[in-house]
Design a protein that fits this description.
Layout: E1 6-12, E2 16-23, E3 31-39, H1 50-56, H2 58-66, E4 73-77, E5 83-90, H3 95-109, E6 117-124, E7 131-140, H4 141-153, E8 158-163, H5 164-175, E9 184-189, E10 194-200, E11 203-209, H6 213-224, H7 228-238, H8 253-283, E12 292-295, H9 304-312, E13 316-318, E14 326-327, H10 338-341, H11 344-354, H12 366-397, H13 399-465, E15 470-477, E16 480-488, H14 489-495, H15 502-517, E17 529-536, E18 542-550, H16 565-568
Helix pairs in contact: 1-4, 3-13, 5-11, 6-7, 6-8, 13-15
Length: 569
């Protein structure tokens, strides 16, 4: 918790920077008091460089424009910059074992070295009493440090770095009090990407799709032969989602072409959302969403809500981030302004200050936390130094008297030294016992390494299938792995091509993921990767593909052991 009654929130997207001030003192509701925004013209969907924002003093300029005074700063990071993983780990009964498992999960599944990231985790409610559901979130340490430098350039104390998707989840939970046990899906459609948040009872799931408003602008630019800036202006002025029927043909030819292009991109987004829904249902045990909640700048595209309502055949509502937050803008922004609708993430950040949130992740770099502690302790260090100096002067004035005292102290220290030698002997005995327990601990660690090899195997299969199919069964015979993969017939048909079957393409993906991760589990020989069969059920809805892969490394071997699990049997 922070001491200030005010907080500043900084939400940086692919096309816009939003700085907001909230009054969070003890009252009936938190209050939005000031808002300032900056459009990132010509960004074209590229990742925001916080170092550039710091160098150009963007945050400081926004504070001056809105009349904001310094306060603790809370920041969101969005899109592909944030690595999010949901893991199910066996419940072993104690926190230390769980921490070891989480550390192993992070080391094995991060797309970059663990020493180069800042990460945090949180346990989540689950249905299986034998497992622990864990959310792991990570960002590159370089990015987190750039965020800290951006805050420093504005003369602000950085107090929190959060994921934009998690901030939105907290905001939805706080403001949408009518969400019940049925599954709801929040769609945050930004400039560069779309975040999907499944909310079902006490659990949730997050996924990111690399389709957003800038993709629409890019396609309009290509289709009409105009610049990105011109396409963006056309999209805002005349753009809407063509629904077909009476909406298919417009008197304005330019608007008609624009609407068709928008529909094509939004249709791709709809297909990817469907894939994510199938993944959530098959891999996370979730239900189909019964409600959609829209937010984000690109969600304001005209008739987008009607398009999703038509495609998903469920209610579609826009997010109101101020259902539980008061608005008292005093810097000239209209309360009804569209800008306020885009503050869902900002509200979610602010809530971390004044209420207990369902998900509380902090991606602050350790060096910034350490520096902050040092600054807070600096007055104590100065006072201690002054006190020590004064004490030294007093001691110098009474040096003669202290000489006798020091001799007595020497005698006392000599006696204590003899006592310490006795203690040292006892310590040596304890050290011997420690070595014995350390050997036992090493064997336990070796045992967990067996699980890690299976975790790597499952991770490769999961990434290769990518939600299009699911793993039905897996069996290791000697040095061969037999997989049975199931999927909806339509999804399997999308995988295959004219030259290759779906099974052959899945085999290529398995080998590719194995190569990228550097695990070396599968044989690199082409003849060692075979499609045993491809079939479908009687109704033609579900397809099954049986695959055979030769293993270069066989799971189930303890370090130093001479036999595989199969040989021992």
């Amino acid at each position: 918790m922070f001491s200030s009654d005010r907080v500043l929130t900084l939400d940086v997207g692919a096309s816009k920077v939003v700085l907001a001030e909230f009054n969070v003192k003890n009252s009936a509701l938190p209050v939005l008091t000031k808002v300032a925004t900056r459009q990132l013209d010509g960004n074209n969907g590229q990742d925001v460089n916080f170092a550039t924002l710091a160098a150009e003093g963007v945050v400081k300029q926004l504070m001056v424009e809105a009349g904001m005074q310094p306060a603790p700063l809370l920041v969101t990071l969005s899109g592909q910059a944030v690595f999010t993983r949901f893991a199910k780990l066996p419940k072993l009964g104690d926190k230390n074992s769980l921490q070891i498992q989480i550390n192993q999960e992070v080391e094995q599944n991060l797309p970059f070295p663990v020493q180069d990231v800042v990460w945090d985790y949180q346990e989540l409610p689950g249905d299986d009493p034998t497992e622990v559901d864990v959310l792991i979130v990570a960002v590159k340490k370089e990015l987190a440090n750039d965020v800290a430098r951006c805050a420093e350039a504005a003369g602000l104390e950085l107090s929190l770095i959060d994921s934009a998707a998690l901030a939105l989840y907290n905001s939805v939970r706080f403001n949408c009090t009518d969400i019940d046990e049925a599954c709801a899906m929040a769609l945050d459609i930004g400039a560069k990407s779309t975040s999907l948040i499944f909310i079902e009872g006490g659990k949730f799931f997050v996924r990111s799709i690399p389709i957003g408003g800038n993709m629409i602008t890019t396609e309009i630019s290509k289709g009409l032969g105009i610049s990105f800036a011109e396409a963006e202006q056309l999209k805002l002025e005349k753009g809407f989602v063509a629904l077909g029927g009476t909406y298919a043909i417009q008197d304005d030819v330019e608007a008609d072409k624009c609407s068709k292009i928008i529909r094509n991109v939004v249709t791709r987004l709809h297909m990817e959302i469907n894939r994510s829904i199938n993944f959530y249902r098959s891999q996370q045990g979730g239900s189909a969403p019964e409600r959609i909640i829209l937010t984000g700048g690109a969600s304001m595209t005209k008739m987008l809500n009607e398009f999703f309502a038509e495609k998903f055949a469920i209610p579609v509502d826009y997010m109101n981030p101020f259902a539980g937050v008061a608005v008292e803008i005093d810097n000239g922004i209209d309360v009804a302004n569209e800008e306020l609708f885009l503050l869902s993430n900002s509200v979610g950040l602010m809530l971390r200050k004044c209420v207990s949130c369902p998900v509380e992740i902090d991606l602050m770099p350790s060096n910034v936390i350490a520096a902050r502690k040092y600054v807070k302790r600096l007055p104590f260090f100065i006072a201690s130094f002054v006190a020590f100096f004064l004490m030294l002067l007093c001691w110098n004035q009474s040096a003669f008297k202290q000489n006798t005292i020091n001799e007595n102290r020497i005698d006392s220290v000599t006696k204590k030294l003899r006592d310490l030698r006795n203690v040292a002997s006892e310590i040596n005995g304890v050290a011997s016992e420690f070595d014995t327990y350390n050997e036992k601990s090493q064997y336990i660690s070796d045992f967990f390494s067996i699980r890690n090899s299976y975790s790597q195997l499952i991770s490769i299969i999961s990434q290769a299938l990518d939600g299009a199919c699911w793993l039905k069964s897996m069996e290791i015979k000697g040095d061969e792995l037999y997989l049975v993969v199931s999927g909806y017939k339509d999804d399997i048909d999308e995988i295959k091509s004219e030259e290759k079957s779906a099974g052959e393409i899945i085999l290529e993906k398995l080998a590719s993921v194995d190569s990228k991760m550097g695990t070396g589990i599968f044989s690199t020989e082409k003849d060692d990767l075979k499609v045993e069969s491809e079939r479908e059920n009687k109704d033609g809805v579900i397809g099954e593909i049986e695959l055979c892969l030769k293993l270069a490394k066989i799971p189930g071997i303890l370090p130093g052991a001479a036999k595989t699990v199969e040989e021992e049997e």
